Amino acid sequence: MNQLCGTSSIVGCQFTLSPMSERYVDIILFALKEVNMSKVWSETDDVSTCIRGKQIHVFDVVRAIFLHAAKTGEHIAMSGTFSIGCPGDSAADVYMDESDIALNKDDTKEIDQLAGCKFALYPLGREDYMEKIYEQIDWSKETEVNVSHSHYATRLDGKVNDIFNLLQNVFDQTKQDVSHVTMTFTLSANSPTGKAKEVKVS
Amino acid sequence: MNQLCGTSSIVGCQFTLSPMSERYVDIILFALKEVNMSKVWSETDDVSTCIRGKQIHVFDVVRAIFLHAAKTGEHIAMSGTFSIGCPGDSAADVYMDESDIALNKDDTKEIDQLAGCKFALYPLGREDYMEKIYEQIDWSKETEVNVSHSHYATRLDGKVNDIFNLLQNVFDQTKQDVSHVTMTFTLSANSPTGKAKEVKVS
Ligand SMILES: [Ca+2]
């Protein structure tokens, strides 16, 4: 199998947006309609949506989709993976020529939405990957977001905009040293249980 | 930071189950109630559920939760990550002493549910990680499940039981060679769009 473009700087995010509501189709379509996606490549099927392009625009669009869905007040989950340097990814892409002006920032920066998030960072192909992970967790603790340990993940609690700033910084800092990085995340907003009421299921 | 138990054989799965329905709380509670979780450690909070124990029981329980949720007929998404050998994971756990008899197999093996799935395998700490991934993708094509390429993931279409058998085999085979493995997955069942009607959102 060909291993293409391990040094490509194209960033991708494959995610599933799940509004826990009968109106989930309307909410997903509403969120997508509210977001300006003209600077990214995108494709949606029955399992997930994939966004590809420059890092700044991929994060801008994913953040905006989550915020516009969450502002409906419904319980919204979003799980996905950010990737860069995937050897299977295609290199040439017109979307890499876009300018660095994020198109959705003005619309989303004032949305004051809280969320819980769990994320995990996977620097690939490196024996020192755990050092890279711990560096980023240590750095995360200096931010506005509440950072705690969870099984197989780091938990973040705070404003969605602060959480996305943190995720984007962690991803950006890691890719400086590591050519292939993936970062998984799950966000939850408007949960009726909330963080204060963690429950055991067994 | 201490790096504990890189050779621990405890398997974990952190996942988010999302029924796209007003009744999502009932559906989640129903699915959890239908599943025998006595051989695994589990914890649920507002973002996700974590299941830990022997590999056979972790896969058995996650599969059963998805199948019991999907048999309600509602559109169900489940996104998660299976892990083994995580240096932050705790070693000693009474659940590792359980026998290898899967408690939910009799209840779930006859549930004839179709789903779409995207998964990605991350063998960590290894420079030859892409070879391990390609070996497993090649092997997957020999199974009952329809395997296709997707951005940043491999797509599977088929019966949920066949999909979980494939995921468990991929994970099991990879861990023979690699001490720290994670595998992300997103499953979607009862989607009104289905695979035949892939749509572009932009
Ligand atoms: Ca309803």
From TrEMBL, chains A, B:
Coiled coil regions in record: none
InterPro entries to which the protein is assigned, alphabetical: HMP/thiamine-bd (IPR015835), MTH1187/YkoF-like (IPR029756), Thiamin/HMP-bd_put_YkoF (IPR011522)
Positions of thiamine binding: 17, 49
MF terms (GO), sorted A to Z: thiamine binding
SUPFAM superfamilies to which the protein is assigned, alphabetical: MTH1187/YkoF-like (SSF89957)
Superkingdom of source: Bacteria
UniProt domain Thiamin/hydroxymethyl pyrimidine-binding YkoF putative: residue ranges: 10-89, 115-193
Entry protein name: Thiamine-binding protein
UniProt source species: Cytobacillus kochii
